[in-house]
Each structure stands twice: as C-alpha cells, then as structure tokens.
Amino acid sequence: MLTLKQIYDDKARVIAGLEKKHFAGAAEAIEEVLRLDGERKSAQQQKDAAAAEMNKISKSIGALMAQGKREEAEAAKAQTGKLKDDLAMYDVRMKEAEEAQTKLLLTIPNIPYDIVPEGASAEDNLAVTIGNWPNQPMMDAIAKNGSVALRDWDSTTDEAIAAERIAQSEKLPHWELAKKYNLIDFDLGVKISGAGFPVYIGQGARLQRALINFFLAEANKAGYTEIMPPTVVNAASGYGTGQLPDKEGQMYHCEVDDLYLIPTAEVPVTNLYRDVIIDEKELPIKNCAYTECFRREAGSYGKDVRGLNRLHEFSKIEIVRIDTPEHSDASHKEMLAHVEGLLKKLELPYRILRLSGGDMSFTAALCYDFEVYSEAQHRWLEVSSTSNFDTYQANRLKCRYRRAEDKKVTLCHTLNGSALALPRIVAALLENNQTAEGIRIPAALQPFFGDDMIR
Fold this sequence. Notes:
Layout: H1 4-9, H2 11-20, H3 26-66, H4 70-105, E1 126-131, H5 136-145, E2 148-149, H6 153-156, H7 159-168, H8 174-180, E3 184-185, H9 186-192, E4 199-200, H10 203-221, E5 225-227, E6 232-234, H11 235-241, E7 253-254, E8 259-261, H12 266-270, E9 277-279, E10 285-294, E11 313-323, H13 328-345, E12 350-354, E13 366-374, E14 379-388, H14 392-397, E15 400-402, E16 409-411, E17 413-421, H15 422-432, E18 439-440, H16 446-449, E19 453-454
Parallel strand pairs: 5-10, 9-15
Antiparallel strand pairs: 1-2, 1-12, 3-4, 6-8, 7-8, 10-11, 11-17, 12-13, 13-14, 14-17, 15-16, 18-19
C-alpha cells in the first residue's frame, strides 16, 4: 500500500507512476485519498479543540461549586456533556474517513521504479539477458544496446530459422512425451479433480521430487532458511501481500472458514513478518519454501494452456527476502543471479525480461521474468517472476525494522521470486532433451533423479 508520505512528498511522481502502470483514474484516486486525509485531520483538530475546551470547563466546575454558583456549575456540566457527545461524533468521523481512505489505498497499485520501461503489454517488455541460446544476433543486440524490446525480437534475431530447424527435428511436445513414457496422466487428473490437476506417475513423479530437492538444495547453499508454511491463509494474509482485493477472483476460497488456498508461498512466508519489528542486524532475512500452489486461472483456454503450460495446482519453490531500503537493490540482483544460475545448471535456453509498466503485477515496483525456450512448442515459457516491492507490501503488513544507528522504526523492503515453478521447467526439460534413447537428465539433476535418462 502506498504511504501517505509518498503521496504528500511527491504527488506528481506518484500519479505519473500509476499512469505508467495504466491505472485508470490515477489523479482522481490520489486526490480522493488526500481529501479523505483532510477530513480525518479536520475531525482530529475539532476533537482536540473540543477535548481542550471540555478539560477547561471541567476544571472550572469545582471552583463554581465552591463559590456557591450552583446554576453556573450545572450549566458547565451540561456543556461538558454536549462536548462529550461532540467528541464521540468526531471519533466516528475520523474512523469513517480513515477506513474509507484505507479501503481506497488498497485498490491503488504500487508505483514502478524509473527503470521500468513504458508500455501497455508484454510486447513492451525488454529482454536484458539471453543464455544457452544458439543464435547470436539477439545476444549481440543485447550486448550492444543493453536490452531489446520484445516487439523488436523478430527483426533482431533468427528465431524463425531456429524454430524451423527445431521443427524439422520432429520434437514431440511434452504432453505426448508424458504419454509415451507414462510420466503424467492428464485424463486421470480430470477424473479425480478436473482439468488442470495432473497426476504424476513413476519417473514423472520422481522428476518432480528431484527438481524440488535440487531447487531447495541450491537455495540452502545460497543461504536461504527453509520454511514449511500452511497452504491455506486467512484474509488478513491475503491483504498483507496484495493478493486481496486485487486477485480475489483468482484464488480458491474456502467460504465456510473464510480461508484461501495460496497462489504462491510468497503469501504465508512474507506474512510471517506481519506486525513485526525486526532489528536491523537481522536483515536481510532470506527464506525459501516449497509448497503446492493453487490458482483458478479463470478464463484460460486454448493451445497455450495445454498440458503443463497452465495448471490449477502446481509445485513451486519460492525465495523471499526482507531487507533495508538501502540494500534491497543488491538483494534483488542476488536473487536474479540465483534464479539464472538454476537455469544454467539445468542447461535450458533462457531469457530475462524487465517487465513494462503495463505488464507488471499490482504490487511490484520492479519485476524481471525468466522464460525458457520450448523446442517442441517453439515458444518461450515463463518460469519465474522476481520482484522488488519496495515498501508497498511492508506498509500493508506493518513489517518494520529498528535502525541500528538511531533506533528509528521504519518500513522494510520485501522481495520474492520463483526459484523455480516446476510445470514449465518440466515441459522444457522433456521437450528439449528428448533423444532416440530417451529423455536426457541434465548432469546437475542426475544425483537427485538417480539416473541420467528417462527411458
């Protein structure tokens, strides 16, 4: 949630940032926040004045009684009674203005950092890194310019030629490989749950477990403390990290108990620090968690969601950091390097995108997506979003730290990222590593899988 200090200090920058995120009615919303804050302040001032007047009159009552001025004393008592009613009225006005202001602020997204590119859609995202990719033009363009907009991808790379070459090799999509090697049963998942809930079998289940253990082991080596959180959360947790009210329709809601199935481990892990004041010496806090994730994905259909491309339930390892404002940029870069290192070890072609304002999440101030290339589907598949939320989540959570220098309590920065989400990683591993003998397992994964091939 944006802070009032942010808005008062630089209202124009806040409005420009919201417009960069394509938030409709940005100026009007911010003006309404300020108007409600004015109402709250006015009611507070009136309450303070009434309280001071009541205190003054109350002190005079005893003196009046001592002087035998009973009628005047009774009139003073009546006046304090009226002032007491006024105080209650001002309390109501303050509460109503504050609640309306908070309700409005919860609907206003975070503002992006200056380096976030302008743009309304994914086509305006910038490719800032490409790795394990066999075609040189795109890599050269990034090296020369620092980034390349996705809308310019076709004019700067021979991806079409690469796709044609891959197509000629007769690569099978992962849903056919899953059937061929009896790895995943999508129909059985439909039978017991519905579409988007696959059943992993035999070597397919072992591959899932291998990836989970590999990702957790790598996170442990990088200094992340593993958490095993609940996979259902209360509404306060959803509001704390920004899933509510923004994504309420995309979350599975257990209405009787008013609990939500988590869309990502970010929600329970970050909420560990809700209403907490942390000593600066404890920062940065680095947590990781493996959980199942649940997303309704309402309205998703078509070839782009076939197989593992978009699921209602999937496994994911999340990394979460709580940090100081001064160090959060360095933390973000470390997280990006960690996720990139995983993809290098899995030997997958990948690219890193800096998301445009219009393609960013509601809560992020800066977000990078990682995508891997699917050699059978001839498309890039998102496998991670790694974001810095600045103080936005921390303000909702009241997650603060006590500075060592002056003991001042101030808001933390929160960050998180997928490291990694399994479904599309599995899809790319199966599709990109198929051979006549079977599906090759990358060397880094073999100790966890227990074999070098799926046969």
